[in-house]
């Protein structure tokens, strides 16, 4: 089990590094978008290449950061029922989800997308838009992103099995961390309580 936990830590480190640098792709897309808007307004000209590189960068940032998002448990979750279950049942639900749903999905995407990427690379397929870009670089983001997501799913699976065996920390602990939304809700609730107390007549 210790060997698997070591693998899990290596996967966590990999996706943490990818997530740390993926933010620069969003910055690059934002800068290019702003420059494109300025050039279009000032010089009354534009290029499809500028437009396409923006969604190339967005696609890369969105896909390659999926594993990082799973690492920090920031994917959208419906916890209406799950949050009412015991910790052990929550862990088992995650194990089933990672093993029977996430892994087959990622494998299917890899199986279908890799031949497409290879074909596009070999053919040098270009965008159908005038002045557009070559297509294979953006398609590479699909297998890369789903590979990182699948690896992170395996890492989370290992951590949950270790927890059930008493050989690892609580993998669900991060769910108790307060998000910015949680802090905002709490601040609004406290302000509402203060406003209500101030509105009460003084005796």
User: Counting H and I runs of at least 4 residues, what is the number of helices?
Assistant: 6
Q: In terms of per-residue confidence, which ranges show pLDDT below 50 for 5 or more consecutive residues? A: none
- The secondary-structure element order is HHHHHH
Cα-to-Cα separation, first versus last residue: 66 Å
Domain module count: 1
**Rg computed from alpha carbons, rounded to a whole number of angstroms:** 23 Å
GO cellular component, one term: plasma membrane
Domain Tripartite ATP-independent periplasmic transporters DctQ component: 31-161
Subcellular location: Cell inner membrane
Function: Part of the tripartite ATP-independent periplasmic (TRAP) transport system.
Q: Summary?
A:
It holds the Pfam family DctQ. With 203 residues, this protein is mostly helical.
Notes on the protein architecture:
It is a multi-pass membrane protein. Belongs to the TRAP transporter small permease family. Part of the tripartite ATP-independent periplasmic (TRAP) transport system. With 203 residues, the protein is mainly α. The chain has one domain. The protein contains 6 helices and no strands. The chain has helices at 2-43, 48-64, 66-71, 87-123, 136-164, 180-199. Helix 1 runs antiparallel to helix 2, helix 1 (2-43) packs antiparallel against helix 5 (136-164) and helix 4 runs antiparallel to helix 5. The longest helix has 42 residues, at 2-43.
